[in-house]
Specification:
The protein is mainly α and 84 residues long. It has 2 domains: 1-31, no CATH class; 33-84. It contains 5 helices and no strands. This is Transcriptional regulator.
Amino acid sequence: MDANVRYISHLVNHLLSRSTPEEMESALRDLLTDSELLEVANRLQIFEMLQQGVPQRRIADILGVGIATVTRGSKAIKARKPPA
């Protein structure tokens, strides 16, 4: 198994072992800087808004991020969907 895959698996298991929202937030704050945590939170918001059909430019305005950030989120969602 590739080391990176092993490390990601370890991270996932570490986070899954948290049993409360408070423990999860604490684990994330221990692992990430404040700006990294905000970036991850924004990315989740981008995904959710895109799935709700909110236009990309509107998402960028609401979250105060660049349109390129929203576009990257859109491309990530499309890359995960199997072709129809």
